[in-house]
Structure formats: C-alpha cells, structure tokens
Amino acid sequence: MTKNPDRTPLTRDFFARDVLEVAPDLLGRTLVRREPAGTIELRLTEVEAYAGEIDPGSHAFRGRTARNSTMFGPPGHTYVYFTYGMWHCLNLVCGPDGHASGVLLRAGEINVGAHLARERRISARNDKELAKGPARLATALDVDRDLNGSDLFGGPTPALSVLHGTPPPRDLVRSGPRTGVGGDGAHQPWRFWIEGDPTVSPYRAHAPRRRPSRKAT
C-alpha cells in the first residue's frame, strides 16, 4: 500500500489528452467508487489504451453504435460494456470530444473498503486478487451498465472519480501487447503496468475460437 497518496482530484483536462498519454499516466492514481454500502478506493496498477476509429482492437473501430456511443466523449466519463455474457468491464473515456478513445482499467490494489470487495469476490484467494483483471475489478467495485456514461465530475460525490494518488517511478512503468486482442490490433504495445506489482494480471495472447469440425457422412 502506498502511504499518504495525494487526494487532489484529477481534472477533466487530464482526460482530454491523447489516449496514449492518459493511459500510462493513470498508473498509481486512486480510483474511488462511492455507493450506499460504502466507499472503495483502488490504486490503479494495470491499464490498456484503445484508440477508437484508428484502432482495430477498439469497439469504436467501425464507428459509433448504441453500445459504444459514450466512447465518443466528452472526456472524463465512463464506458462500461458487458462481455462473454457474464462480465462487465470499466473504461475511462479520454481524448477530444467527438473522437472515440478510452482506457480499460485492468487491475488495481484495493486500499479502502476491501471488506465490500470480498463480499463480491468470494473466489479471491487473497486481497491481491480482488481486482486482478478487468472483470474482477468491475465486480469488486459493483460496476455494471447502470454506470455507463457516468461523469467522473458529476457533482461533489460522483459514483466514480479519480484522485491524483502516487504515480510510480518512470522506470517501473512497462508496456506490451494488449491482453486477448487479435487481428491487426494484436501487437500494439498499449497495455501499461507497474513492474513487480502483485495485483497486475497475467498476460494472455489472443486465442481464436475454434469452430467444431464437421464429420464426413
């Protein structure tokens, strides 16, 4: 746990930059989730950048849809999607308004409200696993599609916000291919993480789904 992280809220201008600037700069920041049951605070340790219309790995590569519309801005909002019919994933929208881009929050260390996360992540073997992976992070923070489009700056107590926290030294920031991304977007080194942090999720390359073979008759 980082001692005495800076509790100054980030500004909307922080998110109004290019996604490849915002993504690594989110490492070490404090994500705050407020809900009736209490507050959870998480130090971000792993993220991925998705550059919208120019990025084959992005949901917005083929343009705006009902599903991805919040990715087009304004910056400083959330984009929450449902995947594999089971899990939600949380992204923070960035870049200029009207141009889709966002940062997938992949992993973090829960420093406040771990008891709330444990109630939702009963399969976690220890607290380092509570938010080790994007679906686990969203589950631990009770994030679902109801929070899609939520404004990080929506009043004095928004459901989600980001504080300055304690960014890691530059020599501990690593980058590499994004997890599970295939095709033309597979090799972009747009996954960023804090080297040596135990909450960072393991890298997994894209594994194409195999169609069942048809037996000759």
UniProtKB/TrEMBL annotation:
Sequence segments annotated as region (Disordered): 158-217
EC annotation from Swiss-Prot or TrEMBL = 3.2.2.-
Give the matching CDD domains.
AAG
The record lists the organism as Streptomyces badius
What is this protein's name? Putative 3-methyladenine DNA glycosylase
Regarding protein family, the annotation reads: Belongs to the DNA glycosylase MPG family.
Q: Tell me the organism's taxonomic lineage.
A: Bacteria, Bacillati, Actinomycetota, Actinomycetes, Kitasatosporales
Keyword annotations for this protein, in alphabetical order, are:
DNA damage, DNA repair, Hydrolase
The record's section on PANTHER family has:
DNA-3-METHYLADENINE GLYCOSYLASE
Q: What class of enzyme is it?
A: hydrolase
Instruction: Name the Pfam families for this protein.
Output: Pur_DNA_glyco (PF02245)
Answer yes or no on keyword Cell membrane: no
Q: Which residues form a coiled coil?
A: none
Q: Which domain of life is it from?
A: Bacteria
Which segments show compositional bias classed as Basic residues?
206-217
